[in-house]
Amino acid sequence: MLELLRCTHPGPSLAVTAMGAGLALAAGHGAAVAAGVGLAVLAGQLSVGWANDWLDWRRDRSAGRTDKPTVAGTVAVATLRRAALGSLAACVPLSLALGMRAGTFHLLAVAVAWAYDLGLKLTPLSVGPYAVSFGLLPVFALLAGPSPAAPPGWLPLSCALLGAGAHFANALPDLGVDARTGVRGLPQRLGRRGSSVAAAALTGAGALAVGAGAAPGRPVVAAGVGASLALAGALLVAALRGPPRVAFRLSIATSALLLATVLVGATGLGSAASGP
User: Fold this and answer.
1) How far apart (Å, rounded) are the C-alpha atoms in residues 255 and 275?
2) Architecture of the CATH domain 2-272
3) Structure letter (DSSP) for residue 268
4) C-alpha distances in angstroms, 98 versus 18, 117, 146, 222, 272?
5) Comparing C-alpha atoms, which of 16, 17, 19 is closest to residue 167?
6) Are the CB atoms for 13 and 46 separated by under 8 Å?
């Protein structure tokens, strides 16, 4: 079971789940709706993580990725396939239980993420699923439950930029392996330097979008955005000179800090959630 959980990429999966639930709370939804959003997002994240290792097991084996449970022989490929499809099936009612419109947006986000696993990761369009799926997350979170509301435009934009930045940061540690196994997504085409700059620039742009939209002039927002921009600068340094995995952790940390900034300092989300 522990090896199966490793295949879900637990750190990023839990971070995205927390982001979805946190956004629902920021919108003024109750704890029950926030928990429902978290469960639906978690089911989708589990399905995408398991599908990734299931569909990539031949490529991982040819690359000698013994850190992967499928290559090490601790998790059967058939088990991963059943887990991926089972969690995907569970994601459907969990999403739609929060409203047909909200659930449809979330299922679209999950479908786009699956499209990445099914082949878009091999193309120059690899960044697209990250941007679209992350951009749809706040739409789902704010539309969920009995008091739905469309999110302000800056919020999906910020999440889309952060998701795109995370794609480049996440790809950095595996650029060498990807080159040997034929993965030719956009980060692999740009190389380490280009992907490092893209990761930092997109993450910084996501922070600026929060600063421009959340509540311009509020000290707590300015402080959160300023600290996030500093983290984006540290991300660039780590991506270019340090261990690449540190850059991805800094990307997640920046997203978490911006979510906290939205939770504490954003205006308009709670009042919007009370609309029709």
Assistant:
1) 27
2) Orthogonal Bundle (1.10)
3) S
4) 17, 26, 8, 33, 17
5) 16
6) yes
CB 204 within 8 A of CB 229: yes
Taking the domains of the chain in order of start, what are their residue ranges? 2-272
The two tokens of residue 149 are: 């509301």
**What is the pTM assigned to this prediction?**
0.91
Segment 148-202, tens digit of pLDDT: 988 999 999 999 999 999 999 999 998 888 887 888 999 999 999 999 999 999 9
Q: Are 136 and 106 in contact (CB under 8 A)?
A: yes
CA distances from 235 to 13, 22, 186, 250 (A): 20, 24, 19, 6
| Dihedral (CA of 53, 252, 167, 241) sign | negative
Measured distance CA(90)–CA(68) in Å, rounded: 25
